[in-house]
Design goal:
Length: 415
């Protein structure tokens, strides 16, 4: 490995011009207060989906899909974790850019990587590192960031991922220096992220992501969205179980209200978080923004009532997107967000339904009006159930006819 430094340096230099133009890879910072964020319940520690120690991990099925790097190898590809190789920092630690090839280890494919180093003094610890290796080691999907390898030497804990050239969705949406994402790109990102969640929820052993937010959605060079940071992921309920009981962990502004109140975690908790991110894509606003007037600081509280009103829903759309979308497309997207953000978890669509609703929006523009798709059966059944309940209560509920339904998951309105 005597020539490793020289060849690796040239490889990094060759891509340096492109890399310098990229957004920094932002690491998620958990915003829920630390006493809630890092305390684990007994169910967290007894979760069979997470290995208890490194020896358990080495014998788990996922260990065959990732490379066990040495600390020396990762020091080599990051130039001893040089400060000018830093891509971002967050609750886990620091992320560095690097480049692996056959000079690092014979047989390795040449590619740029991101190396995440666990902060030894940080609040996110070894167990979240284990969870990340365990879940991403076993799960492979086009909309999940690929875990290439890990390092566990003494008290050093590192993770090696594929390098995502465009960084995080958070940077592209909210950095003033960034050009605003187009409507088409935002809908592409929404669909990719939805497919990632749908895959997790539909896996043989379902997984609840639990920390879905813009900083955890990374973008490839072609704006392919991939979910990252699985440190808070949990195995979903199985069999007769209706939920997973756990301490509340995640990020303020994205966590589902029933999960915050009870600690009962379900796949519908992820659906709520997806609704928040979809709302951020539609509005260009952060989920929580203390710089805005008091009534607009919570994005969900401000925008959700407007999503159900055809006269007001266009008021929430990012003004920078004017002229890029059709009214029907905006209605469909807003209606989808409205249902994802329902206070009643059972009224939220499945992520498979979300994917089905977003797919027709991928080709929409101001001049193209897609043919009205049929509603997912689970949503139709939900309409019928609520209509029956309202009729029993004597309030009456207008069920959307076919034309309304074609515009998306149209809302049930009480007269």
């Amino acid at each position: 490995m005597g020539n490793c430094g020289t060849r690796e340096e040239s490889a990094v230099a060759a891509a340096q011009v492109q890399v310098q133009q990229l957004q920094l890879l932002a690491l998620p910072v958990k915003n829920i207060p630390s006493e809630k964020r890092h305390n684990r319940s007994s169910s967290d520690f007894s979760d069979p989906s997470t290995p208890r120690n490194f020896e358990d991990l080495r014998h788990s099925p996922g260990s065959t899909n990732v490379i066990a790097f040495t600390l020396f190898e990762l020091e080599t590809i990051t130039k001893s974790f040089r400060s000018d190789y830093v891509l971002g920092e967050g609750g886990f630690g620091t992320v560095y850019k690097g480049y692996i090839d056959e000079n690092v280890r014979v047989g390795l494919k040449s590619l740029p990587v991101a190396v995440k180093v666990l902060n030894k003094d940080g609040l996110q610890g070894h167990r979240e590192w284990l969870a990340e290796v365990n879940f991403l080691g076993q799960l492979r999907h086009a909309n999940l960031v690929k875990l290439i390898g890990y390092c566990c030497e003494d008290d050093h804990r590192l993770l090696v991922y594929e390098f995502m050239f465009r960084g995080s969705l958070e940077n592209h949406l909210f950095r003033k220096a960034s050009a605003p994402l187009s409507w088409a790109t935002r809908m592409t990102i929404a669909l990719g992220a939805a497919k990632g969640l749908a895959f997790l929820h539909g896996a043989e052993k379902p997984v609840i992501y639990r920390d879905f937010k813009t900083s955890n959605i990374l973008l490839d060079s072609d704006y392919t969205a991939k979910l990252s940071d699985f440190g808070l992921a949990k195995a979903g309920p199985q069999g007769d179980e209706t939920h997973v009981s756990t301490r509340v962990m995640g990020t303020y502004g994205y966590a589902a209200p029933e999960y915050v109140m009870t600690g009962h975690l379900t796949a519908r908790s992820d659906v709520y978080s997806f609704g928040v991110v979809l709302l951020e894509l539609l509005t260009g606003r952060r989920s929580v923004d203390k710089t805005r007037p008091s009534k607009e600081q919570s994005l969900v509280d401000w925008a959700r009532p407007k999503l159900n009103d055809k006269r007001k829903l266009l008021q929430v759309i990012d003004p920078r997107l004017e002229g890029q979308y059709s009214t029907r497309a905006a209605q469909k997207a807003c209606s989808l967000a409205y249902y994802c953000l329902s206070q009643n978890p059972k009224a939220r669509p499945l992520m498979s339904d979300v994917v089905e609703t977003l797919e027709p929006l991928q080709a929409t523009s101001t001049t193209y009006e897609p043919q009205p798709p049929s509603l997912p059966q689970s949503v139709v059944a939900d309409y019928r159930t609520r209509r029956h309940h309202h009729q029993l209560a004597g309030k009456g509920c207008r069920i959307p006819h076919a034309a309304d339904a074609a515009g998306g998951l149209a809302a049930c309105r009480v007269r």
